[in-house]
Amino acid sequence: MRNFVIAAGLFAATLGATSAQATINICDGNCVSTDTNVLINQIGTASTTQTGSAGAASVQFTSLENLLAPSNGQARIEAQDGILNTLTFELLNGYSFQTALFNLFDASQNSTTVTITYFDPTLAALVNKTFDLANNGQNFMGISGTAGETFTKISFSFTNGGVHDLRQLRLGGIAAPVVPEPASWAMMLVGFGIVGSAMRRRKVSLAFG
Questions:
Q1: What are phi and psi of 197, to 5 degrees?
Q2: Would residue 13 count as lying in a domain?
Q3: Whole-prediction pTM value?
Q4: How does pLDDT run across 123-169, given as a tens digit for each residue?
Q5: Are 185 and 123 contained in the same domain?
Q6: Are residues 135 and 193 in the same domain?
Q7: CA 59, 61, 62 angle in degrees (round to 5)?
Q8: pLDDT digits (tens, 9 = 90+) for 168-180
């Protein structure tokens, strides 16, 4: 039992050392590797929710304002009033991604920064990072992790105005939710049984020793 505890402690320490070295990077330009275009499902109706797909994964776009998906094809999401102030995109049904590349297009003259919010799996917390925007043009940005971190959604908010749209969204490392195989479940149950049995024997020896 003591050897089991020591082994578990060493394994946890190894995981901690790996996590401490991991970093989430947000960069300018065509700076991350992606392999899947996000495609939009045009519905022709303004709504706070629009949908799309990235391979087998469903993608949902949400905002506090009405959104438009102006055409089928590669993702372009804009606000009904022409100024996009907030936006979140998310993979549904447990899917995740490792990298994302996007273009925050044609920022208004007064919009100077964007705050990007994401869940950092290393910190187990939401993180906000703010970046400068170029007015009247393209703002390509990418996000990735240095240790294969995965994401499910990213949010954007803009100061003093917004952008015309988010376009050219691409994702990399899309993964379906992991479901343990029957053999894995069996091994886990056997392992729990062994640990429980060892703990019961340990309690008995302490009680009568």
A1: -65, -45
A2: no
A3: 0.76
A4: 889 999 999 998 878 999 999 999 989 999 999 999 888 999 999 99
A5: no
A6: no
A7: 145
A8: 999 999 999 987 6
Strands (DSSP E) found in the chain? 24-28, 36-37, 39-40, 47-54, 57-68, 73-74, 76-79, 86-91, 99-107, 113-120, 125-132, 140-145, 153-158, 163-172
CATH at residue 119: 2.60.120
Place of tokens 């700076």: 31
Domain assignment of residue 5, yes or no: no
Residue 35 phi/psi, 5-degree rounding, is -140, 5
Sign (positive/negative) of CA torsion 55, 50, 124, 143? positive
Q: Name the residue range of residue 110's domain.
A: 21-172
Q: Rounded to an integer, what distance in angstroms lies between the CA atom of residue 132 and that of residue 206?
A: 64
* Cα 202 to chain centroid, rounded: 43
Angstrom distance (rounded) from CA 87 to CA 62? 6
Q: Which of 193, 142, 207 is nearest to 170 (CA)?
A: 142
